[in-house]
Amino acid sequence: MHGDSSCPASVTLGDNYLAQLVPNILSSSLFQTKRAVLNVVWDEDGGQIASIWAGPVVKKGFTSNAFHDHYSYLATIEAAWNLHNLGQNDASATPMTEVFT
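and the corresponding structure tokens:
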């Protein structure tokens, strides 16, 4: 969603979409019974990225002081699922595993 003059209504559309989607995910039986996580990311300006993690294996109220970049998301999935990295950028990225219990 972009909140600029080219499409000012898209923030409202995005908020409404997430307001419907997120509760459905969080209340699903799969999400409630498995080691599942939901990650919502905002990357509006290419600078700092806001990221919210939710799920039964996520530390509640946790805030990370570690530096993470876009490749950290890939490194996190690779670490969680015991996968090999896909390239040098994710190989050198810090996974966001500190958010998990």
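(Above: one complete record from the training split.) The mean pLDDT is 87.
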